[in-house]
Amino acid sequence: MKKRWPAVLGGVGVGILNGMLGAGGGVLTVPLLEWMGVKGRRAHATSLMVILPLSLVSAGVYLLRGWVTLGEAAVFLPGGLLGAAAGGWLLPRLNTAWVKAVFSLLLLWGAWRMLR
């Protein structure tokens, strides 16, 4: 891998964002992967594989600190699992440009909510 150091530094950034913002590290992961030459759908799928263990570590820290309970999280788990399965099924069936446009709109919406 020619871009090893940018990948390591990007991974640190992704981990920090994920720990601070939930799964916000994906916002950095996809563009970083694309910059490294990973194409559209593969970048999104790889981002999910990176975010999964980071999210588990972050969730464990939050749980150990008492910032969340399993009961609170369990309410969202069935719908989240169903949505994740639907998203995984949909991604290969959608136009990459459309996925990028939706992702961009979600980023803008998230930024707008954070600035209010």
Explain what this protein looks like in three dimensions.
The chain has one domain (4-115). The radius of gyration is 15 Å and the shape is globular. By secondary structure, it is an all-alpha fold. 79% of the residues lie in helices and 0% in strands. It is built from six helices and no strands. The mean pLDDT is 83. It has helices spanning 4-21, 26-35, 40-64, 70-74, 77-90, 96-115.
Gross morphology is globular
Characterize the main sheet: none
| Helix content estimate | over 70%
The domain count comes to: 1
| CA radius of gyration | 15 Å
Distance between the termini: 41 Å
- The helix-strand sequence is HHHHHH
Strand segment tally: 0
Structural class: mainly alpha
Q: Tell me the β content.
A: under 5%
Number of helical stretches of at least 4 residues: 6
The pLDDT mean sits at: 83
Weakly predicted, low-confidence segments = none
Write the layout of secondary structure elements.
Layout: H1 4-21, H2 26-35, H3 40-64, H4 70-74, H5 77-90, H6 96-115
Helix pairs in contact: 1-2, 1-3, 2-3
Entry summary:
79% of the residues lie in helices and 0% in strands. It is mainly alpha-helical and 116 residues long.
Main features:
116 residues, mainly alpha, 6 helices, 79% helix, 0% strand, globular
